[in-house]
Design goal:
This protein has 598 residues and is an alpha/beta fold. It contains 20 helices and 28 strands. It is globular and about 80 Å long. Bound molecules: adenosine-5'-diphosphate.
Length: 598
């Protein structure tokens, strides 16, 4: 499927045409860009099959350049476009997947402009022009914020008055398409599933952010409500005490608009040195310029601080990935950031760091032999990732709505043979009290007690058969009763989970494996095909009825040969949706939320 991708920034337009095959295999057919718009002129660069053409052309602005694209593609012999993908910076709190950009979607996205005043208007302008130019093609938006919709409330919430939070003040995070792509690329390079890895993605371009990609999902990124929070950037400040607003207003008489403008456009490397370009800053620092030296120190220190913070947030880190113009090209910046991280098992190989070659989408590893943390460098490929997401979106099977029975799981434990022996005595066996609906699974007659620093939970059910590792599943409310911060995990993903004390009649154990089980749908290949679901997919499921009806986002689909089709949620989730016995859910399409009238 041939996809044209538009990445329209506030001052540039980047284009790519990709042929996306099965499994996301991609060939780039055309690459182009316009930038430096000024009165009646801009620069351009086009490239296809080894031929490059660059120069100046008479386009005043982004709209004029966008309108010229069909002619350029025709000149370069690129035809047969099936869909147009657009990078959109801000998708707000609901858009976690690609969206067809029709009138209703555009109107809705315009409402988000106050959240991304620099970026969204340019993105949407390109969409409008492209819709006029290619009225027959699907126009699909892929959102920078979407990857971060998995961030938990403790990450997205600012500790500010309720009225402000009700008005939409929260952390979103950006660069999601880039972080998602490089995390996948790093997992490929390590030949391990993304879902098993704790990755810190460090995107250092003109904009810069760090993202903790925990077991395949974004846990946190350093940008917040706007792309201003976090790292030092080309012209943006990154973290600044919000008290600065009052101070600057009172001391210098600056208005909110003046302060905000300076934080976006006259800060970062530019504010510190006069140049927003890291190459200039590095050159000047090397020539003895003290301002440039401080800028480099501060830039690297802030990035290293975030890496340390995110390693702590994830309880460890398997790989750090560098990308973006600075991350890809500046060996000295990578070195400054990584030096001093030996304490967490990260050591660079200096020769490999100096010899990085990214030709052919390579993702070289540059850690020293014996380093526990891999360090990877790779080019980001936001356009390619957008093309892949658009192709996957268009290739989705049409889902036939079918009711899915919803089952509510109370707190329970799965025991290993060693745990069983420690709790119930050597040679003890569990008694099957009643079978569960998933074939081969049952509830035992025996019970255990869970003990945490705040309290204990008695008569906790044991589910059989025995497993390789002990796993304890509680609700979020239970986690407060116990007094332990418990992560939401898919069953079996127990790396770095907290330790809990379990009491049995014959003894006690302290074991890790304590989780809040992520909601999921069990199903079998036949039902999955009928519902248009695939193993490992995340879907939205609407459950309950009336004023307590709820849509549960990101519900994992697990297809097993003998799976009994049933959605599993925990007691907190059931209470939130007022769910009782016999409740059913239905997989819904995200676009149905965007266009409730259609
Ligand atoms: P954008 O975020 O606009 O896509 P890029 O990812 O292209 O930006 O990053 C631009 C930054 O990368 C600039 O600060 C530039 O100086 C820096 N950069 C590019 N090449 C090098 C290099 N060889 N050494 C140091 N910095 C570099």
């Amino acid at each position: 499927m041939r996809i044209l991708v538009f990445n329209a920034g506030s001052s540039s337009l980047k284009l790519g045409v990709f042929d996306i095959g099965a499994g996301g295999a991609a060939v780039q057919r055309f690459k182009g860009g316009y930038e430096r718009f000024r009165a009646g002129l801009c620069t351009y660069r086009f490239e296809a099959e080894g031929r490059v053409e660059a120069g100046e052309v008479a386009h005043d602005d982004l709209a004029a350049a966008t309108a010229a694209v069909p002619g350029v593609l025709a000149d370069w012999g690129v035809d047969g476009i099936a869909a147009v993908g657009h990078r959109v910076v801000h998708g707000g709190p609901e858009i976690g997947a690609p969206v067809v950009l029709d009138d209703a979607a555009l109107a809705r996205l315009e409402g988000l402009t106050p959240l991304a005043p620099l970026h969204n208007p340019a993105n949407l302008e390109a969409v409008r022009v492209a819709r006029r130019v290619w009225p027959e093609l699907p126009q699909i938006g892929v959102f920078d914020t979407a990857f971060h919709l998995t961030n938990p409330a403790r990450v997205t919430t600012y500790a500010v008055p309720k009225a402000w939070r009700d008005a939409g003040l929260r952390r979103f995070g950006f660069h999601g398409t880039s972080h998602h792509y490089v995390a996948q690329r790093a997992a490929e390079a390590l030949d391990r599933p993304l879902g098993d890895l704790r990755i810190i993605s460090v995107h250092l371009g003109n904009g810069a952010s760090v993202c903790a990609v925990n077991l395949g999902a974004s846990l946190e990124s350093s940008m917040g409500l706007t792309p201003l929070e976090g790292l030092v950037m080309g012209t943006r400040s990154g973290d600044v005490d919000p008290g600065a607003f009052g101070y600057l207003h009172r001391q210098l008489g600056l208005t909110i608009e003046e302060i905000e403008h300076a934080l976006y456009h006259d800060s970062g490397l530019k504010g510190l040195t006069g140049s927003a370009d890291m190459r200039d800053v590095e050159d000047r620092a090397g020539a003895g310029d003290a301002e440039a030296q401080l800028a480099i120190n501060l830039y690297a220190y802030r990035a290293r601080k975030y890496i340390g913070a995110y390693a702590a947030a994830m309880g460890g880190v398997d790989a750090v990935v560098f990308t973006g113009g600075i991350g890809e090209n500046s060996a000295s910046m990578r070195r400054r950031i990584c030096d001093g991280l030996d304490f967490m098992g990260l050591r660079l190989d200096h020769d490999r760091n100096m010899g990085v070659d990214l030709a052919g989408r390579a993702a070289p590893q540059i850690q020293a032999y014996g380093s526990r943390v891999a360090v990877i460098v790779t080019e980001t490929a936001e356009q390619l990732q957008i093309a892949r997401e658009v192709a996957a979106h268009l290739a989705r099977p049409v889902q036939a709505p079918r009711p899915i029975p919803v089952a509510v799981s109370g707190r329970h434990v799965h025991l290993s043979a060693e745990s069983l022996a420690a709790l119930f005595g050597a040679g003890a066996e569990l008694t099957i009290a009643h079978p569960l609906r998933q074939p081969g699974n049952w509830a035992a007659a025996e019970r255990v007690t869970l003990v945490g620093p705040k309290g204990r939970l008695e008569h906790v059910a044991i589910l059989g058969p025995l497993r390789k590792r002990t796993q304890i599943e509680v609700s979020r409310t239970d986690s407060f009763a116990l007094g332990i911060d418990v992560p939401v995990r898919d069953s079996g993903q127990l790396e770095g989970t907290p330790v809990i004390r379990i009491l049995g009649p014959a003894g006690q154990i302290d074991t890790d494996g304590l989780i809040v089980a992520a909601r999921h749908i069990h199903t079998n290949p036949t039902d999955a095909a009928a519902m248009g679901l695939t193993d490992g997919e995340l879907v939205d499921v609407r459950v309950g009825s009336g004023d307590r009806a709820l849509t549960f986002a990101r519900t994992l689909v697990r297809v097993q040969p003998t799976g009994f089709t049933e959605m599993h949620i925990d007691t907190d989730e059931a209470n939130a949706a007022g769910i009782g016995p016999g409740c059913e859910g239905e997989v819904v399409d995200l676009e149905a939320h965007l266009h409730p009238e259609s």
